[in-house]
Amino acid sequence: MQYLNPDTPRTLTLAITGASGILFARHMLHALHADPRVDHIYLVVSPSALRVLAEEDGLIAKNNLTEKLLGHASEKIQLLAHEDIGAPIASGSCPVFAMIVLPCSMGTLAGIAHGLAANLIERAADVTLKERRPLVLCVRETPFNLIHIRNMATVTEAGASVFPVIPTFYNQPLTIDDIARNFVHRVLQHIGLPQPNAFHWGSSPNH
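-> structure tokens emitted (207 positions)
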């Protein structure tokens, strides 16, 4: 686990895989882009995620993917090819603070749990684990079968945090965006990047 000065610029990896919940990934990308403590974001999107993006957002994103997800271009975000296992994040020498997989499909979970490293997302996650860096897997499936549960146990024992995409209602969300935003805030707090407008139990909802 890394311990950095709160003011130390951070580089993070965000992976988006083929589970339902692209809205959550979009909010995560916006939050990371807006956070001044994050100076660089490696973004990896699986082919299955592109299909989900088309089905949930009606977005065909073969070109200019970052701009379509974020709404504008960003020099902070570097898009990496899913098949490029020679990319910087495939090596432990690349100084990445943490990796978030949101949403994390059961296929991606299985690949990480068994160390397959068959694509860049799996390899980068494997590197994150071996370097003892924060790895957050935001799994999105229901119900879980025993294979899913055992794979979640395996990655937890290896050092990852399994952070299911489960909405909260104690913050009295008014919109789907409120639900997604609060989930993203909780994930970022978990890795040491608390957000200034996040809801905390005992405080008033930000309506």
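The chain has a mean pLDDT of 94.
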